[in-house]
């Protein structure tokens, strides 16, 4: 069972209607959830980067999912028919999980470590964020030392006056 950061359990169905979410105790993959909508242009800009990263981390215990926020299966189906999307798409038509994760802006990316804790929470899409995400995934996989708490990815330029868009890591989600 997957848990949201408020400790509640959840299942989502994928685009084909199959339930997703149950995790075996032995299965401790890192999960990357990208909340999106078909009308969201920054979401469309983020998808190729996520697909590329999913290919890179496929055999390393990292699972990538797109989570559609608030749209019908028909709308998402039409989108998938027109676009080339290789990532599994989970449906959150009634925004139950989106609310549990506090998703107010799209795209929103949540990374859940193998320990079940929220390791990264990022809203919006910026060129260069891929390096920050790669470092986070590599540190979760034990490939690099994690950055000290309180530091952010300085490889991503922040607009003047921008507020930080990341939630504190370490919140329990499973």
Structural summary, described in words:
It is a single chain. The chain is an alpha+beta fold. It has a single domain, classed as 3-Layer(aba) Sandwich (Glutaredoxin). It is built from 4 helices and 10 strands; from the N terminus they run βββββαβαβαββαβ. The strands form 2 sheets. The chain has an 8-stranded mixed β-sheet with strand order 4-3-7-6-5-8-9-10. The longest helix is centred in the N-terminal third of the chain and has 17 residues. The protein is globular and about 45 Å long. The chain starts with a strand and ends with a strand.
How are the SSEs ordered, and which strands pair?
Layout: E1 2-3, E2 9-10, E3 12-14, E4 19-20, E5 30-36, H1 41-57, E6 62-69, H2 73-82, E7 89-92, H3 96-100, E8 108-112, E9 117-123, H4 129-140, E10 171-172
Parallel strand pairs: 5-6, 6-7
Antiparallel strand pairs: 1-2, 3-4, 3-7, 5-8, 8-9, 9-10
Largest sheet: 8 strands, mixed
Helix-and-strand structural type:
alpha+beta
Overall mean pLDDT score?
81
For the record, what is the CATH homologous superfamily label? Glutaredoxin
Bulk shape = globular
Which series of helices and strands comes N to C?
EEEEEHEHEHEEHE
Quick overview:
Helices cover 25% and strands 24% of the residues. With 174 residues, it is α+β, with helices and mostly antiparallel strands.
